[in-house]
Amino acid sequence: MTDLVSQAPRLPKAGETIHGHKFFIGFGGKGANQCVQAARLGVKTAMICKVGKDYFGDSHIRNFKDNGVHTGKVCFYRPKWTNPIAQKVEAGENAIVIVGGANMLLGPEELHRAVPVISRAKVLVCQLEISPNTSLEALRMAKQHKAKTIFNPAPAMTDLDPEFYRLSDVFCCNESEVMNVTHVNIYGIVTQPGCVVNAAPYWLMRVAGKRLSQSERAGRSAAGLVRFHVDVHVF
Description:
The protein is an alpha/beta fold.
């Protein structure tokens, strides 16, 4: 994913045009960001993805290599573009539009070519920036090879296959994704124990924001709610 980011004093209303004060292009995609972050922390990482044979795709590969990420399982697909993401950001709030592009063409064939990488992995991280069926198959493969699995259900889906919950050791999502997969208003979580955490076996958590909910090990009720503020910086 390639981030096309506009910063403005606030998010525009529907049909409204406002002035921004900064624009930049960055490397994005949840999977790519997590991979690079792990590599910067000294972890041996590899990226399994498909990018367009274009400026954005070439730039992504250079960025992976510059950060020590193994790119031997990155596939190029010439007719499709690398996935652009339009973002508007201010004070930690954002609005994001994703265009699928080459990422959505990553399939089982590419996954099975990546078995040598997956079979040696200790942790596999997946999300929904690729086909859900492809993410599901990757999680199955990771489980077969005894790897820990982390799944981020974004962009959010309302009809997520329940197998994602069973295959995810860590199910990591933000507020809107929690409400999509549980059909529960999380702002009423304190008065609705047992509703939210039935979806995932261990965790439903806010990634970098205001709320954290940890389930009991049995996965039947909310063990606690911690509220905190996180300063968000764009860099």
